[in-house]
UniProtKB/TrEMBL annotation:
<dbReference type="GO" id="GO:0006355">
    <property type="term" value="P:regulation of DNA-templated transcription"/>
</dbReference>
<dbReference type="InterPro" id="IPR001789">
    <property type="entry name" value="Sig_transdc_resp-reg_receiver"/>
</dbReference>
<keyword id="KW-0238">DNA-binding</keyword>
<protein>
    <submittedName>
        <fullName>Response regulator transcription factor</fullName>
    </submittedName>
</protein>
<feature type="domain" description="HTH luxR-type">
    <location>
        <begin position="262"/>
        <end position="327"/>
    </location>
</feature>
<keyword id="KW-0902">Two-component regulatory system</keyword>
<feature type="modified residue" description="4-aspartylphosphate">
    <location>
        <position position="63"/>
    </location>
</feature>
<dbReference type="InterPro" id="IPR039420">
    <property type="entry name" value="WalR-like"/>
</dbReference>
<dbReference type="InterPro" id="IPR016032">
    <property type="entry name" value="Sig_transdc_resp-reg_C-effctor"/>
</dbReference>
<dbReference type="GO" id="GO:0000976">
    <property type="term" value="F:transcription cis-regulatory region binding"/>
</dbReference>
<dbReference type="InterPro" id="IPR036388">
    <property type="entry name" value="WH-like_DNA-bd_sf"/>
</dbReference>
<keyword id="KW-0597">Phosphoprotein</keyword>
<dbReference type="GO" id="GO:0000156">
    <property type="term" value="F:phosphorelay response regulator activity"/>
</dbReference>
<dbReference type="Pfam" id="PF00072">
    <property type="entry name" value="Response_reg"/>
</dbReference>
<feature type="domain" description="Response regulatory">
    <location>
        <begin position="14"/>
        <end position="130"/>
    </location>
</feature>
<keyword id="KW-0804">Transcription</keyword>
<keyword id="KW-0805">Transcription regulation</keyword>
Amino acid sequence: MMDSFPATARDASLVLIVDDVPDNLAMLHDALDAAGYMVLVATNGEAALARAAQARPDIVLLDALMPGMDGFEVARRLKADAGTAQIPIVFMTGLTETEHLIAALAAGGVDYVTKPIKPAEVLARMGVHLGTARRARAQQQQALQARSALDAFGHASLTVRIADGRVLWQTPLARELLRRHLGIDGPRPALPAEITAWMQRQQPTLAQQPEPPRWTLDPGDPPGLGTLVLRLHPPSPEAEESGPGELLLVMREESDLAARETLRQGFGITGKEAEVLYWLAQGKINRDIAEIVGSSPATVKKHLERIYAKLGVETRTAAAAMAMARLPG
């Protein structure tokens, strides 16, 4: 159990060593433990897969040749599982023939060390790959946070595979807009053929276009939907490295309803307060707002008082300015 490690080691990287030879395990375990790593061991492929799924190690040192399930198959299964696919695998092998080394890399290994194992070499190579993996995770997390943050401003983003229009990643708001406007849902839906064809036409010249290409889906059923606008962007550099042939779509529902939802989410106010604030930003006076929202001017005034408190302002001019800053131009 990981709780058996001393507190000072819990922040260290977790290494899974897989080898069917006890002496090899003992030597590497002692060297890594002395270097401050947390260490798990497995003596066969089945145990390696179970430990990797449960503990999610930061790196795997994997023996290539083992009885039963060999290291190549273990690596392929780790890479096929989304939960373990990003874990770097360093093969340990006594095989030096070119085809065996190619097989190790083809199975998902990032590197290999030859037997007899030299602990200093293993530590040096591990350090390189752990650093690379940490940077990749940090970039992924930053990209995820940045894209998800767009939802609060009414912009939904998704990553789409150009070849077939398959959605590979989407924010919660993107999923909701796809469901409402296009009637598609699920973790990895496919966009309609006409949108996919539009993306494919735009892709060759996308980087040279001064503005992101725009696709507009006019309102339809059910009543009350706004206009769905899609803008096509090149992928980020890290997305190009991990999945070439993908593009970023940013969607927005342009309507009074969508604008009010943007204000509600952006400022943490109620739906009615968002409605009042929206019309305030349009230059309406209290009497006009009351007629639009179906309440009295006195009720509108009370809503505005609560809005001012939540926004940290004292005047309708300041509240309107903050609202306009959140809404698209």
